[in-house]
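thread: overnight batch results

M.L. [08:02]
morning all. the overnight job finished for the chain we discussed friday. pasting input first so we're all looking at the same thing
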Amino acid sequence: MAELVDASVLGTDRAICEGSSPFRPTINLIMKVTIENKKGLTKDLKVFIDKKTMNSYMDDKYEEIKGSVNLKGFRPGKVPREVLKRQFGKAVFNEVLDKVIKDTSTKALAENKIKPAGQPKLDLKTYGEDKELEYTISVTELPKVELKSINDIKFEDYSVKIDEKETEKRIKEIAKNQPNFKDAGKDTKAKEGDLVVFDYNATVDDKPFKGSEAKNTQLTLGKDLFLKGFDAQLVGTKIEDEKIVEAILPENFPEKELIKKKAKFKCKIKSVKNPEEVKINDEFAKNLGAKDLKDLQSLISKQINDEYKNSLDRLSKNQILKQIEKFKVEEIPQNLIDEEMKILSQGMSEEDTKKSNKNFEEVAKKRIKVGLILNEFGEQNKIKVTEPELQAEVQKQIRMMPGQEKMVMDFYQKNPSAIASLRGTVYEEKILNLIKEKAKSIKKEVSKDEAEKILKESQKQQLDDELKDQRKLNKKIDTKKPIKNKTQVKENKTKSVIKKTKKVSKK
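M.L. [08:03]
and the structure it wrote out:
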């Protein structure tokens, strides 16, 4: 549990602990807890610790510091209690008070099975040296959530049947993007689609520049990948030809003083190669990492299936979340509603936020309810996110940004909040996967075309729902004013609630 009382409020002086061992009380913690009000989610717990227990904590602390305090005129470990008390009494008491409050408040909440929805507030009633300690904990607890209805959830569990023609079509597309070339005859003139290999020397205003020479440069004519208009000037050339090609250097050219200047490239053609159709056979398959053509067909079929299955699985999970939204939760903590409403109103003026408070509250309650239910299900089923699972998700994010792997890795290493958000994503995914196992699935096998139609209709419905929510939130808002948080209406709200409730329930 997080620290309930700030040490600075209690006036604790930590200097006496420098170099000493951690504070480990050896006495048994004895306390009396009375719940002042038992109705509703707001609870006041009166905690009482008798004078004898408090003095035992004090004795234990003095014994701890005796061996580490050095005072002139006394041997280490032989400083009398009275001297220690005069020198460090206030600091010792404040540290003991801090420690006892943390220990007892944690125990009081745990023994009464109260999961705080946010940070509890403390009010010290009686405290002091050689006195009993009495204080109250004011806390809003998370509501009890009933999960029996989860077994009644129904969702469509899709599998996609991939036709052989789809697999063959995908393989042909791959082959088309990996053309082979064969040497053309010595007198064959290059045309669009041919591969030309050449050496060049370039100048600007008859002067060479950095990078103005190159050997064995390869260009597939017609793609215009080198410099704009360069390819077309090599059309019609043949082996041993020399050709002067003129081109304008681009805006991203490294030598800034040469940007947009005309350069002359003296090209010596070394070879011309004609494209030939790639033969789709075992050799082709092996070049792509498969064992043979049959294995490649199997891999491509699975790849196509996965592309649709992943999207359809998300659709199934959305169906589950929609049904969870209809579950009943008797009371939702107001502090969680307030926090969620702040997220919903990000980027809006204070005036517009006030006008739309009622609609914000309705949407916030729905999202918090889903988060509470998912979190309770996760806790009851002891769902945890392991370090390997978290690292696997990081690697997944890295693979989604080819060429920027280091930047993505550095981002996660330097931003603990980003890792925490990723952990929440994995946690929610594990919860929904387990709910799918317990809920009632309606098996459906569909073709690729049917899958595309289902996903298209789902996207349209989701967009309509988002716009409906947005219109509802903006009902009383001046529509001429831009809403900066438009994309936040749907994204990551359930995850934010799960993260909050999971955090406080662990305390």
